[in-house]
Amino acid sequence: MLNPLSKNKNYTLTFISVWGLIIVIHTLIVNFFYGVNILQSIVDALVFNLLFALIGYNLWYVIRFGIRDKSTLYDTVVNHVLIAVSVIAIWLAASYYGLKVVYGTDEPYMVFLKKTLPWRAITGIFYYLFFVLFYYLIMYYEDLQEKTENEARLQNLVVDAELETLKSQINPHFLFNSLNSISSLTITKPDKAQEMVIKLSDFLRYSLSHDKNEKTPLKEEFNNIRRYLDIEKIRFGKRLKFVYSIPESCFEKKIPNMILQPLIENAIKHGVYNSSEEVKIELDCYEDDNDVTIVIKNGFNGEAVKKKGEGIGLKNIDKRLQLIYQRQGLLKTGSQNNIFTAKLTIPKEV
Q: How far apart are CA 133 and CA 266, in angstroms?
């Protein structure tokens, strides 16, 4: 793992600027308060501060991979104390002997250097604490970011799994009904049973081929609805009438795949199934600046005994829309004057 001071441009510039400022301040203090000439003051500041900057840069690896995962607070504190003592001792010794090589014959400067070692050691403590605090803040921030990203990935996996579960419930629900119809037709109308099997095959092929694509153009979904209705037309004949009004612009808008079929199935189940007369199913689409609205209406016999069911289709649609668009109330249903209406609101893609 790269040091955050090198992988982040802003951190790098800040690091260089801070140490540049420290070197300037150090130079001024040594020059004005201790009377050391300006050249020696600059060299003194460069040696001591650049060396600690180098040590501090590498402290990241010691803290990140050596100390961070200590099991107890006591172990962490003891390790930091030992490392701090070692780092400051090495820093002072290296700086002192480095300057001694350069100015060893300058007695006044060497006296000054020895006398100031205590306050340099205290400065080293503050330097060490600064690096430790900075690195721990960075690690906390990175851990928080990683935790947030992991939670987001986990949430996405949960949502994907839930969506797949919802879709897997819809397909068998329709399949069982179709197979029951085919079973009946094999006795009374074998040719119709064969036709229904072929259309059912086309319908399921579409369903499987779009299983991995969460959204599809309305035109493709509409064409699949026509396949579904062709299957049900064989079953119900003239009792089923389908009309639609869809502007060409709506056909290109994307909607969740297999989202309309349960609504049409619901219209047939509670409208056509319970009626001996022709029942009209209407599908309309319109759009505004933000949404595409799809409305499905069907007549029903208010006096007929309602066909029992688990209501999987409508519940799944509402749940899928909520998961995909993170909005509630995108599916609204109601009935008036023996007309059942399902209104589907699809937010436009940004």
A: 63
